[in-house]
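Re: the 383-residue chain
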Amino acid sequence: MLPLEGTTVVTLEHAIAAPFCTRQLADLGARVIKIERPGVGDFARGYDERVRGLASHFVWVNRSKESLALDLKAPSSPEVLNRLLAKADVLVQNLAPGAAARLGLSYEALHARFPGLIVCDISGYGNDGPYRDKKAYDLLIQSESGFLSVTGSDGEPAKAGCSIADIAAGMYAYTNILAALIERGRTGQGRHIDVSMLESMAEWMSYPLYYSFDGAPPPPRSGASHATIYPYGPFPAGDGRTVILGLQNEREWQVFCEQVLERPELAADPRFSSNSRRSAARAELRALILEVFASLSAEQVVARLDAARIANARMNEMADLWAHPQLQARKRWVEVGSPAGRLPALLPPGVADAGQARMGDVPALGQHTQAILEELGLATGAG
């Protein structure tokens, strides 16, 4: 039995933040009923066609869900929603600000009728405050939260290559829902959860916030290198491939000089005798490191680093990650169904094997409408 078997989640969701949250719940065995607009569905279905005609974002965050096509503006929709919520444990929504309230789906409107219902609102800026009604997309929140100010290279900000603001909000929604389910087991009462993308990213930005405490300068943009520790970042080898390495203390610096660079005299060089000095003289030190690495392949550099027990990684591309030997060895890949056939999917982190997670199909739009309406005692086409 999976941890959330017997738990029903109704979700009015689109794009990434809320679907990412509810997919985690589905992974743990919850029944997730995803309400979609008839004929169109979650607009993330149309982002691209990279997975055998399906959208990459949608495949990622929507497996193991049931799709109910329902026009929320139709006269019959309140009855469908009422019957769904009467059986539900959790309602998740990330509609436009105020939209859920206009539909009568705010926590305040629902709590008297469904006292055990947990209502989770996910938005860009939260349910109140001067920014409540601003549109919020992942890149905009990366900017608003200050993430872009410390990411990229000198003079040129760069966004994260994946939807980190959406992921952050989705994960905080997920963990808050799990906590609310535990609380409800003790009190019998549901609760309201208000998760914003901005607050989620602000929490993730706490290190640079504290680093710039009381008006101090913030961490500089440093590309893929560490802003304040050196050497820590990417270094090309002689074969054109890049190795990422990181030193954390003076003992590692000495070993790095002796076993990796084979230049033991550098360990005592006053230019590099502390992390702050190495960081200040990073251009000189980088040139010395690259001079040694130029005669080595990436594999040879990694072998030296491993032998010296210096932290390192290859700078992999997506093809490398698909074939990563560690994921293969730990049997992290399984298959799920979809409208385009069987597709590879990663087991959720922390799950030992496919028997510990629900790895269901990615649904077609409205695939479960008839079955759900019949289950609710409503005629087909009620939505």
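The mean pLDDT is 95.
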